[in-house]
């Protein structure tokens, strides 16, 4: 990491203009390849003195910036505003890796009794902001019993890393929420000289314990950890990469179903604020447009979002930090063993080793998964590879094409595709991520041998001229590309492993299945793997899961993985999979039709004529009214969260005794689910409301629930924590529900 600091002093009265000039150019700096951070700092004691701070992935990125048009434009904007007194200076600072042993830093502060809530709220925000600080491992907030004296006990990889953080200009911004209390802080630096369970004769070795070890801090791993942490499960996330990705080199499309998951996790607004809507698709074959489709379907709760994967990982990491979990970067899994009691994993970290004792291990470590390799999992039918090499690039495109559309340009000879160009809009004016077949010279660089799957760092980066050549052949005449920010060569691999679980170890995401990069299928499927798995592991850790519940992960998710891999491979080489039913195909692409109907862990009783069946996604409806609430509620307001939700329905045709039984049914279901269940009674607009304390009563005022879920008389729906229907019955059948709950929670009651 390289940090550059440029100091300047404004002319009298030009302070505001300096800030305005910075805001104008700042976004352009952030769009440059390798830029990690940019800030304008103002001296608190001298308001005319400013410091421009930029941080870069490496020297090349900084050199390209300094020699490029963005830096020149910034200098030109500052030139008439700065005071020419010789005090300007440009400093380049190399970030030095931490040295020495890990340390603990203890901060002690006593806050006014009436400010405790403010301090604790501010601390939670600071903990979120600390994610990604170099050398920062994690911390705890402790309080002396019966007092307002707090202790922050933080671990850093070294004293040098901690002192570099104290001197970092970013320090004040990140700790801003607790700055009002820092005047009374007392600080001690404690060197860690020994750890419990230190292995005799081995230096730099430590041993830790956790409930779940998650390997990999990509979208699947972060989602797994978020879901576990939301449920109070102790988990650790380790990631071999020392730094988060900085390029849009992977998935961009975020599916509607993933957006619903993010709404449940509380991050959907962050995602929408950081991305752009992908509003449609147009497909061209040999220069002729064969179809154009709008993706803005009114029945979808969210449209298709364009968001680079590095932004997805940033948002998920921040959410995880708010839950008190910080991924440990630069930690490589080197091996593990397991038995009936748990998993013992070995990590290489900070020049030493660490042993982690966990009850479960989840491998989300990507296409080159160590967990998959160590388990001996094989790809069913072998790992498939496309014969061509492909190249990716992040460029600006000048052309007359519809905004917000994913554009596919195919070239066919004798009915067979021999070249393609896919352009996905990115945030920024005329900015696209493009994929196309790489020029032949790249394959020649491999010596005629098969290039490795994934992204090929060994091969030279494609140039702007290579991208323009593809546009000249496939895009509309006159299309021009510019501003190449990043490029790479890759080979498409595809396959799915023979099993998703071995004992107490699971695989998810790219560790389990590999896809052509068609619509972000791999990332979205991996997120849904994690969303399915984590609640089941959480119940197992709490000791309330039925025997065999963990088997449902592979039973439910592997068929979905097979379907997605097969569909993505077929779609990658065609102009369209099914032109007769484009809408259904799009809903399938958006993961809105995912169903676990064949799972033995879902069921029903009685007769239904429509409505979401067992294993299907539970759709949202509106118009629910609850006494004391001045606005209508959505069904997802009730089902959102970490537990199962039981919805008992009754209309005015139901006998009063059948409605009153809801109270007993509610109590019985809660007991059988070990408290992992919320229950609501939904009544039609004219049904009499019984006098009862439990469950809470809501009115289906617009009868949207009745129509969507095909209920009448009495009925019930059990919605799982992952938003799929676990069980339904019509009429409401308490005995059948109890039998189903025994298969999930294992209650013998």
From TrEMBL:
Keywords: FAD, Flavoprotein. Its cofactor is FAD. Residues 604-614 have a biased composition (Gly residues). Residues 604-625 are annotated as: Disordered. InterPro entries: ABM_dom (IPR007138), Dimeric_a/b-barrel (IPR011008), FAD-bd (IPR002938), FAD/NAD-bd_sf (IPR036188), RIFMO-like (IPR050641). The keyword Protease does not apply. Residues 2-90, 103-190 form the ABM domain. It comes from the Bacteria. This is 2-polyprenyl-6-methoxyphenol hydroxylase-like FAD-dependent oxidoreductase/heme-degrading monooxygenase HmoA. It comes from Amycolatopsis viridis.
């Amino acid at each position: 990491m390289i940090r550059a600091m440029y100091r300047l002093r404004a002319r009298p009265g030009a302070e505001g203009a300096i800030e305005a000039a910075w805001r104008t150019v700042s976004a352009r700096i952030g769009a440059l390849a390798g830029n990690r951070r940019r800030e304008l700092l103002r001296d608190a004691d001298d308001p005319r003195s400013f410091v421009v701070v930029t941080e870069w992935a490496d020297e090349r990125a900084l050199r390209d910036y300094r020699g490029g048009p963005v830096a020149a434009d910034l200098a030109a904007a500052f030139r008439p505003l700065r005071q020419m007194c010789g005090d300007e200076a440009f400093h380049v600072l190399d970030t030095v890796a931490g040295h020495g042993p890990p340390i603990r830093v203890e901060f002690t502060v006593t806050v006014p009794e009436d400010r405790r809530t403010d301090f604790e709220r501010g601390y939670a925000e600071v903990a979120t902001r600390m994610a990604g600080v170099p050398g920062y491992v994690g911390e705890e907030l402790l309080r002396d019993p019966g007092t307002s004296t707090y202790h922050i006990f933080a671990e850093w990889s070294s004293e040098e890393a901690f002192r570099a953080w104290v001197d970092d200009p970013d320090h004040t911004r990140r700790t801003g929420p607790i700055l009002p209390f820092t005047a009374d802080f007392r600080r001690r630096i404690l060197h860690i000289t020994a750890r419990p369970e230190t292995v005799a004769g081995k230096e730099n070795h430590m041993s830790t314990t956790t409930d779940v070890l998650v390997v990999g801090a990509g979208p699947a791993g972060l989602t797994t950890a978020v879901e576990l942490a939301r449920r109070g499960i102790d988990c650790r996330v380790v990631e071999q990469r020392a730094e988060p990705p900085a390029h849009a080199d992977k998935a961009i499309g975020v599916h509607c179903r993933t957006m619903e998951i993010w709404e449940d996790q509380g991050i959907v607004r962050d995602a929408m604020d950081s991305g752009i809507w992908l509003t449609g698709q147009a497909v061209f074959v040999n220069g002729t447009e064969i179809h154009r489709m709008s993706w803005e379907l009114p029945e979808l709760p969210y449209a298709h979002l364009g968001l680079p994967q590095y932004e997805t990982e940033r948002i998920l990491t921040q959410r995880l930090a708010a839950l008190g979990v910080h991924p440990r970067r630069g930690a490589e899994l080197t091996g593990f063993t397991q038995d009936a009691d748990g998993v013992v994993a070995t990590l290489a970290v900070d020049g030493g080793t660490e042993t982690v004792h966990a009850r479960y291990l989840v491998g989300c470590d990507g296409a080159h998964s160590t967990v998959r390799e160590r388990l001996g999992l094989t790809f069913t039918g072998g790992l498939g590879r496309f014969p061509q090499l492909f190249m990716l690039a992040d460029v600006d495109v000048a052309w007359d094409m519809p905004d917000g559309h994913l554009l596919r340009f195919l070239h066919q000879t004798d009915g067979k595709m021999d070249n393609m160009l896919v352009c996905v809009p990115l945030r920024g004016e005329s900015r696209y991520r493009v994929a196309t077949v790489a020029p032949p010279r790249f394959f020649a660089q491999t010596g005629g041998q098969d290039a490795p799957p994934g992204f090929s760092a060994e091969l030279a980066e494609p140039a702007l001229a290579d991208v323009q050549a593809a546009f000249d052949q496939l895009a509309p005449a006159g299309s021009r590309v510019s501003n190449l920010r990043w490029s790479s060569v890759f080979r498409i691999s595809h396959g799915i492993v023979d099993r998703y679980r071995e004992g107490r170890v699971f695989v998810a995401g790219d560790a389990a299945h590999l896809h052509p990069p068609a619509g972000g299928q791999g990332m979205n499927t991996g997120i849904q793997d994690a969303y399915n798995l984590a609640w089941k592991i959480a119940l197992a850790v709490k000791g309330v899961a039925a025997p065999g519940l963990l088997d449902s992960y592979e039973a439910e998710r592997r068929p979905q993985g097979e379907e997605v891999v097969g569909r993505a491979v077929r779609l990658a080489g065609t102009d369209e999979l099914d032109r007769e039913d484009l809408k259904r195909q799009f809903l399938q692409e958006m993961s809105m039709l995912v169903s676990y109907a064949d799972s033995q862990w879902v069921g029903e009783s009685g007769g239904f004529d429509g409505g979401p069946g067992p294993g299907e996604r539970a759709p949202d409806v509106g118009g629910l009214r609850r006494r004391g609430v001045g606005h209508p509620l959505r069904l997802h307001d009730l089902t959102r969260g970490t537990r199962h939700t039981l919805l008992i329905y009754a209309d005015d045709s139901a006998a009063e005794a059948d409605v009153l039984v809801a109270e007993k049914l509610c109590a019985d279901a809660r007991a059988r689910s070990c408290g992992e269940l919320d229950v609501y009674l939904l009544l039609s607009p004219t049904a009499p409301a019984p006098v009862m304390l439990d469950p809470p009563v809501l009115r289906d005022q617009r009868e949207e629930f009745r129509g969507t879920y095909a209920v009448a008389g009495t009925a019930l729906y059990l919605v799982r924590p992952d938003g799929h229907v676990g069980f339904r019955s019509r009429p409401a059948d308490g005995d059948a529900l109890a039998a189903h709950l025994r298969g999930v929670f294992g209650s013998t009651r």
